[in-house]
Design a protein that fits this description.
Layout lengths: L2 E9 L4 H11 L3 E10 L4 E9 L6 H14 L3 E6 L4 E7 L4 H11 L5 E8 L5 H6 L4 E3 L7 H14 L4 E4 L8 H6 L4 E5 L11 H8 L3 E8 L9 E8 L6 H24 L3 E4 L2 E4 L2
Parallel strand pairs: 5-6, 5-8, 6-7, 8-9
Antiparallel strand pairs: 1-3, 1-4, 2-3, 9-10, 10-11, 12-13
């Protein structure tokens, strides 16, 4: 297969689809899947097209060929090789349910990614990573060593040519420097239905408020804690009889599912940023 994915966003105006379709015709391209969205509030247009070509093409050459159209319409446009698997670095602390889920999905082919490494401030899941043949990096951290430890994460992401860093219940607050270094390529799973119950111990916060639904939110990492653009969410109904420990157990399943969906959407290039929001093509 010689499939590619074109994503773009730009100020909304007439002629965008016409020009994009004309370029695809010039490439002898066949549209496999196409989705678009016009946001009246921001007057921006969003488009994702998966297309096939008769022969394998260099992505950079395709990007160069498309550049005049991107310039004409002031587009943020990117072209990707649909066959290329994204390389992931997973960060985790002591709770391993999200890590376990991602490892299984990748190993079984359910998630089109290559997990290049797992890194943690604890050693709890070294054996789990090893059982899948994934390198494990123990990166302990204290308040005094945080800058050095975060530089190790940055170095790992660079040396391993990481496309996406996944915070799979990594219970450390990232510095502004690390957030900026990973901007647009780091996803966190927060164990509440944001914007409710930000910060620590959200299930205990939810229990104290007597909520009847709990949820999980996957979002891009920013320097503002739990404030990054939201990618995916889901909820589970609960009753007054459920304890904080039971909420945590129920929520772990929701967290795993929501994080896997968000990772899939990112690696399949289905997410486009729309200011502080996201457009997610299904």
């Amino acid at each position: 297969m010689n499939d590619y994915i074109l994503t773009l966003s730009c100020p909304d105006r007439t002629g965008i689809v016409h020009n994009v379709s004309g370029w695809l015709l010039e490439q002898n391209g066949n549209i496999v899947e196409a989705q678009q969205f016009g946001d009246a509030a921001t007057n921006r247009f969003f488009l994702r097209i998966q297309f096939s070509l008769p022969e394998k093409q260099d992505v950079n050459a395709l990007q160069t060929s498309f550049a005049p159209i991107a310039e004409k319409f002031s587009m943020d446009a990117n072209i990707y090789d649909a066959q290329r698997k994204a390389r992931l670095l997973i960060l985790v602390s002591r709770q391993g349910h999200c890590l376990n889920d991602l490892l299984f999905r990748a190993h079984s082919g359910q998630l089109p990614v290559e997990i290049a490494a797992v890194a943690s401030n604890h050693t709890d899941h070294a054996g789990l990573a090893s059982s899948y043949g994934i390198p494990f990096h123990h990166l302990p951290v204290t308040p005094e060593t945080r800058p050095q430890q975060e530089q190790q994460i940055i170095d790992l992401a660079r040396d391993l040519k990481i496309d996406l860093v996944v915070l799979a219940r990594y219970m450390q607050i990232l510095s502004t420097n690390l957030c900026q270094s990973l901007s647009g390529r780091a996803i966190n799973i927060h164990h509440s239905f944001l914007p409710s119950f930000k910060g620590a111990r959200p299930y205990h916060q939810a229990h104290a408020r007597g909520v009847k639904i709990i949820g999980a939110t996957a979002h891009y990492v920013t320097a503002d804690l739990d404030e990054g653009p939201i990618i995916e969410q889901d909820v589970e109904h609960v009753t007054h009889s459920v304890s904080p420990a039971e909420l945590t157990q129920i929520g772990s399943d929701v967290e795993s599912l929501v994080l896997a969906r968000a990772v899939r959407a990112h690696v399949e290039h289905r997410i486009l940023l729309n200011d502080q929001r996201t457009v997610v093509f299904r």
